[in-house]
Design brief:
The structure holds two protein chains of two kinds. By secondary structure, chain A is α/β, with parallel strands linked by helices. Helix content of chain A is about 45%, strand content about 15%. A two-stranded antiparallel ribbon of chain B has the order 1-2. Classes of the chains: A alpha/beta, B mainly alpha. At the A-B interface, helix 1, helix 5, helix 6, helix 13 and helix 18 of A face helix 1 and helix 10 of B.
């Protein structure tokens, strides 16, 4: 008996060990569901405790938003304080709605199984690694909001699309699936203090860019660095604006590239832009260290004045906050490839918000969109994240960074061409990244760059 | 009497079977769930066109395999994979055997210390190794260039990971460095299993260290040697993804692309999960073929002690 008992116990323990290791395997993929902030919770509770008539009173004429409402949002450089604040206020306004947050830095991977199984959240903020809105549209995961977005009004009673800097992206045939929430611009960054100290002129166009690069090089500093590991930085911050300038300031070329149109990668505008890049390369303006390094490494070298200029996005100041040396002052120019007297070109990037096609509570999702797309919340976004929300708001008195304020001035200036939001599909983006690095390393010619892209575009058609 | 004799025997056999099943079944279930099922699932997926995100998959037969043949990146990736296999096998085995023999046969006092030092890279996470070596290779701030600059007039600014000719070679030192310790331990263990009387007899007969190594050590550790080589080959073909992901992302312009990373890039960055699965099948086939060929090449008569 004793022997048997012992055997059983050992067997049980072995089984337990196996189960434990299994549990360990499953744990990693678990979805993290953040609890609503304590503040929200208490208001929700007290509200439900109140008699029903009173709740109705507080809601007034607003349409009733009830039921479960699940939102998925990526938490990265912008943090989650804005989201927590918005969801808290949304809960106060609609006490009957039960909010579920699925958020975190790995949320895209964690939620993927649910999207595949057809059980997605109601609303999704598309940002961060593993997310791609073009692919989500292709995979038929997002709701067609073309009709709704035209007549929707935000909670201030203003038309939803009226204050937007970038309108909802057109996915062909006038169809909208996403609304840009974050708006920013690619461009060239430099240290204002360093330029002032050395007496260098901030480039206004291609000629002055070449002239100042020559001066910088003579002073023993590399004029230009970029992250070779992520070549889309130099594509976004240098090449794309060149395409527009050389295309007679017509940004349609970028939309054509997005649509994989024949000849959109092999034409005069592209050839002339690549010629300029080759000119920079042959004059030795690119820091040889660029190849193979990450964006962080390239930004560190830029902060340490090993390099004078860097193509980047508006987030860079916030991203490098902890490492900025004393006296360093970020300066921003949207483009450098325009002819003297030509218009400045701003190449935008956006992060979008979208309703799932299989949302269980689309009304709540729509109500939340109407709730956040206001001038007031845009200012809060700028203050809490240091970046720009896609709503034209007066930021001068806000806590937004100087770079963001400068960028806002460029966007409002009629002499600036703000290109439409566009995004190449992942295959084309990869090909463009590889080809651009190869061009900068002299392993291919501009002609070969264009041929490679045309071939990839043909394959995507 | 017969009945009495049989009964406990039957009970014994049943219990014995249960006992064996108790060991085999859990392993078999785990093996099926985590190895057999993903393998078959990958094979199944390779016949579909699936982005990895949509709810529906389209059956396209051998479409992915046709694309695989036309893909210009694949030949380069295979070449790079075998570049790593070739140099890793040679360098790791060379160093591991050298260290193992020196530590055991030269009777060093600090044997324990050296063993720990050489094994150390194996306990560091691969991610740390990748980041560490990225720092070493950094063109402006890295240790390697600063060190080399000590001997030159002009400061060295070689871009180890960014240069299309150097990048692949630069991936070797971290891979080799991280691999030596484990195989060294394997070889040490088998050397320690050789009776010292053999060496004593050999040295009495006038055999030097080199002769002892080639005539006694190597033949007697050959089985471990073979296992180590095949293990390096398999782990390299399946696992070179990690070092590439950490250090170059396959760049510049696919010059350090390996099949493992290309699978990841296609499956998760370019949203062709089923094509990624097809690359996985290719890796499987290559691994099997290579292992079979090596088994044949390395076959020798087993020497009994």
């Amino acid at each position: 008996m004793n022997m048997k008992l012992r055997k059983k116990a050992t067997g049980g323990m072995a089984l337990l060990l196996v189960l434990m290791s299994l549990a360990g395997c499953g744990g990693g993929a678990k979805e993290t569901t953040t609890q609503p902030t304590p503040e929200t919770k208490s208001t929700a509770q007290t509200d439900t405790d109140k008699p029903k008539e009173e709740t109705k009173d507080t809601q007034g004429s607003d349409p009733k938003v009830t039921g479960d409402f699940e939102i998925q949002y990526f938490v990265g450089g912008y943090g989650d304080s804005w989201w927590k604040e918005m969801l808290g206020e949304f809960q106060k306004k609609y006490p009957d709605v039960k909010i579920k947050e699925s958020a975190g830095s790995q949320i895209n991977d964690q939620m993927k199984p649910r999207w595949i199984q057809g059980n997605p959240p109601d609303l999704v903020y598309i940002d961060g690694a593993g997310s791609n809105e073009t692919q989500m549209v292709k995979d038929d995961q997002l709701m067609d909001i073309s009709e709704w977005v035209k007549q929707a009004k935000n909670v201030d009673g203003e038309a939803l699309t009226a204050p937007l800097i970038a309108p909802p992206q057109d996915y062909g045939g006038g169809k909208n699936y996403t609304i840009p929430l974050v708006f920013g611009s690619w461009g060239t960054f430099y240290d204002e203090s360093l330029f002032k100290e050395k007496g260098w002129d901030v480039p206004k166009d291609w000629d002055s860019f070449l002239a100042v690069s020559e001066k910088i090089k003579a002073a023993g500093i590399n004029p230009y660095i970029h992250t070779g590991k992520y070549p889309y930085y130099i594509v976004g911050g240098l090449l794309n604006s060149g395409f527009v300038s050389e295309n007679g300031d017509n940004p349609q070329i970028l939309k054509d590239q997005e649509a994989n149109k024949e000849g959109s990668f092999k034409n005069d505008a592209v050839a002339k832009t690549l010629k300029k890049v080759v000119e920079m390369r042959d004059k030795g303006f690119f820091d040889n260290a660029s190849f193979g390094i990450t964006h962080t490494d390239s930004q560190m070298l830029f902060l340490q004045h090993k390099d004078a200029m860097i193509p980047n996005g508006l987030w860079v100041e916030n991203e490098m906050k902890k490492d900025v040396p004393q006296g360093f002052k970020f300066g921003f120019i949207p483009s450098v490839m325009q002819k003297p007297g030509g218009k400045v070109v701003a190449i935008p990037y956006t992060s979008n918000i979208a309703i799932a096609k299989k949302a269980k509570n689309p009304d709540a999702a729509k109500a939340f969109i109407e709730f956040i797309f206001t001038k007031k919340e845009a200012v809060r976004w700028a203050e809490l994240t240091g970046a720009l929300m896609n709503v034209k708001a007066d930021l001068d008195s806000s806590g937004a960074s100087d770079v963001v304020k400068t960028a806002m001035k460029y966007f409002n200036d009629p002499a600036t061409i703000v290109a439409p939001v566009f995004k190449l599909n992942a295959d084309l983006e990869q090909t463009e990244n590889d080809a651009t690095i190869a061009l900068l390393q002299k392993t291919i010619t501009p002609e070969e760059w264009m041929d490679r892209m045309e071939k990839a575009a043909a394959k995507s058609r | 009497m017969i009945k009495l004799n049989n009964k406990p025997k039957a009970g014994y056999a049943a219990r014995r079977r249960l006992f064996i099943a108790g060991f085999l079944l859990p392993t078999f279930i785990l093996f099926s769930i985590f190895t057999i099922y993903p393998l078959l699932r990958g094979l199944y997926l390779s016949f579909f066109d699936w982005s990895g995100g949509s709810e529906t998959m389209n059956f396209i037969g051998f479409g992915n395999y046709k694309d695989l043949l036309d893909d210009e990146v694949i030949p380069g990736a295979i070449k790079n994979d075998y570049f790593l296999v070739f140099w890793k096998v040679i360098l790791i085995m060379l160093f591991a055997t050298f260290f193992a023999v020196s530590l055991t046969r030269l009777k060093l006092k600090e044997y324990g210390l050296y063993r720990v030092i050489f094994f150390f890279p194996n306990i560091i996470s691969v991610s740390v190794i990748g980041v560490l070596w990225s720092f070493i290779y950094n063109p402006h701030l890295g240790f390697l260039n600063s060190f080399l600059s000590l001997f030159t007039q002009k400061s060295v600014d070689t871009n180890w990971l960014g240069d299309s000719h150097l990048a692949m070679w630069s991936l070797l030192p971290p891979s080799v460095w991280a691999g030596i310790g484990f195989y060294m331990l394997l070889i040490i263990a088998s050397i320690l299993g050789i009776p010292s009387s053999l060496y004593e007899a050999a040295s009495m007969d006038g055999a030097g260290q080199w002769k002892q190594f080639t005539k006694i050590t190597l033949p007697l550790i050959w089985e471990q040697f073979k296992t180590s080589i095949i293990h390096i080959v398999i782990t390299t073909l399946n696992g070179s993804f990690i070092i590439v992901k950490l250090m170059t992302d396959g760049g510049p312009d696919n010059h350090t692309q390996v099949l493992g990373y290309y699978l990841y890039q296609m499956g998760f960055k370019q949203f062709h999960l089923s094509y990624g699965a097809t690359i996985g099948v290719l890796i499987l086939i290559l691994s099997i073929i290579t292992t079979l060929i090596l088994q044949r090449l390395l076959r020798r008569d087993t020497i009994e002690m």
